[in-house]
Amino acid sequence: MKRNVQVLLLLFLGVGLLHISLLTDLYLRYVRPGLRPALIASGVLLIALGAVSAARDGFPFNRPRAEGGQGHDDGHGHGHAGGPKVAWLLYVPALTILFLAPPALGSYTASRDEAEAPKAPSSASSSGESLFPALPDTGVAPMSLNDFSARAVWDTDGTLEGHTVRLTGFVTPGRHGAWYVSRLVISCCAADAQVRKVRVHGAPAPPADTWVAVTGTWHPTGKAGTGNASPALDATAVRRVPEPKDPYHDMG
């Protein structure tokens, strides 16, 4: 039984990895796009190892009985070939990946982790050029939460003033009725996710984890350039949008 568990586990894990990385885009819920080739290679390798083990042991992986017909029995009717029953629990993560791929991280994570403060940009050049490029003079400017937050906290030139912007993310409830439009960004995988969120004023909160595009204007809080300001938006419109294929890629 123990050998059966090992072989089938390799096969299930391999098929699960190929399912989320080769046949679908579900892998983007857990890792960056650049890791897709590594996931595909890992899935193929696991299936190959499982197939080799199955071929070597013979299907259904039964080992020949020992001489005298005793096999692995101790002669008293108590077999010792079977592994611990808890080993079957190893199938849970393999089958979960294959049939019930967990969703991307959302408001539960964002509400329990503090938003990463945007880093202060490098000093302006000697020519006096602004730290941040000017926004379009007309229309709505799509922005990433990271760019908006950096301007709200560090931009002493006020490039956000007088401009309407659009931020896209998922809804994270806050305290006392407050809510945030949020994103989680990753360097490698979901385990290193960092929170980006902007508080929304002037609009009721949609349900948690709803993906929305929030249009509005900058809501000044604190003094920019001191690190005491926080990113906030006065909403003029909140529209529900589909969850993006890559939920960790914040491009506005």
Automatic annotation (TrEMBL):
Q: Where is this region: Disordered?
A: 221-252
Alphabetized InterPro entries for the sequence:
DUF1980 (IPR015402), DUF1980_C (IPR048447), UPF0703_membrane_permease (IPR052955)
- Which residue ranges does UniProt annotate as crossing the membrane? 39-55, 86-105
Where do the DUF1980 domain residues begin and end?
Answer: 160-248
Keyword set, alphabetical order: Membrane, Transmembrane, Transmembrane helix
**What Pfam families does its record include?**
DUF1980_C (PF21537)
* UniProt biased composition (Basic and acidic residues): 240-252
Q: Which domain of life is it from?
A: Bacteria
- From the Swiss-Prot or TrEMBL record, give the protein name: TIGR03943 family protein
Which organism's genome codes for this protein?
A: Streptomyces hygroscopicus
